[in-house]
Amino acid sequence: MTRPTFDSLAVGDEIGTREVVVDRARLVRYAGASGDFNPIHWNERFATEVGLPGVIAHGMFTMGAAVALVVDWAEDPGAVVDYQTRFSRPVPVPDPGSSTVVVAGTIGALDAEARTARVDLAVTYEGARVLMKSQAVVRL
Amino acid sequence: MPINTEYAGREYPATAPYAVGREKLREFAEVVGSTHPVHLDPEAARGSGYPDVVAPPTFAVVIAQRAEAQLVEDEAAGIDFTRVVHADERFTHHRPIVAGDQIVTVLHVDSIVERRGLSMVTTRCELAGLLPDGSTEPVATVVSTLAVRGEDA
């Protein structure tokens, strides 16, 4: 892969797609790596008691996994200067088994002065968006 | 207990420094599938012009969440964590976070807005790197909104 150059990009260009497979073990690992030990992400009994259908993925796990597509495309993690999202629906994670989140990135805007590209991420689970307004601004 | 709206506008003192460790960055990068060598290999990072391995874009949440705990774990603030949903999150990076950084964080409660049985609590963490002379430089701004359901919602 080579680093994309600002001048080679056009709004609407696709940067690629990736599938993120998430199971309970990954949620436990994310809890440890991030320090977010909210039991809704690993304890079925607790999750159902607070009204969830079951254990759900950390929104921040999904957000972090989605932007990896942008980092690999930009060939530089330090190039992502801004990244935001809204969490629109949870990703349930069964046991046994796993859930697959699909990430697709498109160039949503270009700022010629700042030489930044805004990558808009479509992040879906079973065809429905789990992140909304998921946008990463990349300096190129 | 309802949310204490008097917390809006509050600013907390800077946290104790968070020491960004190489293995912690690797652990975080690997679990989110961010396997670019610049996250994992100090030589690759230096080859790209960084002093050490670089944090993934959302790693700042690890540091921000420790600062946010000052609010969410404060019983007087009235945030019942069993009723909380993460509504949105934004990272603005003033410079990349790298292993070896010492980060101090100032937590601001930007707003608490109540509407239709929901309280929207927006916090802003200003992460700053400690410099050898004791001054700080801006590293990242992390804005997070929690939606807290009311007791009868």
Structure description:
The complex is a heterodimer of chains A (140) and B (153). With 140 residues, chain A is of the alpha+beta class. Chain A has helices at 24-34, 44-49, 59-74; strands at residues 14-22, 80-87, 99-111, 116-125, 128-139. In chain A, strands 1-3-4-5-2 form a five-stranded antiparallel beta sheet. The mean pLDDT of chain A is 96. Chain B is of the alpha+beta class and 153 residues long. Chain B has a single domain (5-149), classed as Thiol Ester Dehydrase, Chain A. Chain B contains four helices and five strands; from the N terminus they run βααααββββ. Chain B has a five-stranded antiparallel beta sheet with strand order 1-3-4-5-2, with helices on one face. At the A-B interface, helix 1, helix 3 and strand 2 of A face helix 1, helix 4 and strand 2 of B. Strand 2 of chain A pairs antiparallel with strand 2 (84-93) of chain B. Chain B: This is UPF0336 protein GCM10025865_05350. Chain B: Belongs to the UPF0336 family. Chain B: InterPro entries: FAS1-like_DH_region (IPR039569), HadA-like (IPR016709), HotDog_dom_sf (IPR029069), UPF0336/Enoyl-CoA_hydratase (IPR050965).
